[in-house]
From TrEMBL:
A Gly-cisPro motif from one monomer fits into the active site of the other monomer to allow specific chiral rejection of L-amino acids. A motif (Gly-cisPro motif, important for rejection of L-amino acids) lies at residues 137-138. Homodimer. GO terms for cellular component: cytoplasm. It catalyses: glycyl-tRNA(Ala) + H2O = tRNA(Ala) + glycine + H(+); a D-aminoacyl-tRNA + H2O = a tRNA + a D-alpha-amino acid + H(+). Belongs to the DTD family. This is D-aminoacyl-tRNA deacylase. It is an enzyme of class 3 (hydrolase). It comes from the Bacteria.
Amino acid sequence: MKALLQRVTEAAVTVDGRETGRIGPGLLVFLGLDRGDGLAVAERLLSRVLRYRVFADDAGRMNRSVVDSGGGVLLVSQFTLSADTDRGLRPSFSSALPPAEAEALYGDCLAWLRAQHAPVAAGEFGADMQVSLVNDGPVTFLLEASAP
């Protein structure tokens, strides 16, 4: 499982001209679900996302989490994060979780996040989404977790 975090001053997702999610300052999280991922892996990774210190403290150091700063989280499924790009000129998606399983796990991830933090907004699984954001910094990190 991969989570690409972007610290943002604002971010939004639209599908067919309809806004599905919007946050002000916080984290835009692109989530890639791989074969073998499950809720235990998701909870471990998402807990880390919520506690990851990427926001400035009073001294200007990245020492505060999204929870500490009271920021929002916008969760967007992105199967292309699961691509194997080691060879050739075309990505392979054989390591991605199959769509039905991925949709269920994404729903579980969203429910878990909403139970732990607010505000949490979301994209729409499997949709052609337009994501707009203002990356603050820019600050971007890739977090990964796998089954033990």
